[in-house]
Design a protein that fits this description.
The chain is an alpha+beta fold. It is built from 4 helices and 6 strands. Strand 3 and strand 4 form a beta hairpin.
């Protein structure tokens, strides 16, 4: 409100009430758009912190999905060249489950049973397996989890063993 204008007290109160109602409406729209952690009624400060955290998580997910898309397409964005001649191994931790993506050419002899054997030797339990063929490439996705959750799976060792097997 510009200085020099003297509004009656009732008008100022009405303007402030309208402003608060507008802000409350905006916060309720924000609360509807983000997944709110369960608990007691959140303060506006907690709601804003949750929104910031959620937006950062979404940005990280977008970056991860972009990288996965490049991996699945078999292109290196920096060089712009196709990497279809060599197999690709990608291991990702999804929390309680791990995801293994293998990409190979149609002419390459990838023994899926050997890959599963390595997983079993590393104390992993296979939860699901899928594959698809796109062009001259085969995309395998294997979901697995640790047999003993207290011990877990050493991702770096598993990744190295799979690279040795495939390359």
């Amino acid at each position: 409100m510009p200085r020099g204008i003297n509004l009656p007290k009732l008008d100022r109160n009405a303007l402030e009430r309208n402003r608060r109602m507008y802000m409350k409406d905006l916060f309720s729209k924000l609360a509807y758009l983000i997944p709110i952690q369960p608990g007691p009624r959140s303060s506006l400060h907690a709601l804003l912190n949750q929104a910031i955290t959620y937006i950062k998580e979404l940005q990280e997910r977008i970056e991860m999905l972009k990288q996965r898309k490049q991996l699945l397409e078999g292109t290196d964005d920096t060089a712009g060249v196709s990497c279809s001649s060599s197999p690709v191994v990608s291991l990702r931790d999804l929390g309680f489950i791990l995801e293994l993506c293998l990409i190979s050419g149609l002419n390459e002899k990838l023994m899926l049973h050997e890959v599963i054997k390595v997983l079993l030797e590393e104390a992993a339990e296979v939860v699901g397996v899928s594959y698809s063929t796109v062009g001259h490439r085969i995309f395998y996705t294997i979901y697995f989890r640790a047999v003993c959750t207290r011990i877990g799976i050493e991702n770096s060792r598993l990744h190295e063993r799979l690279k040795e097997l495939i390359f």
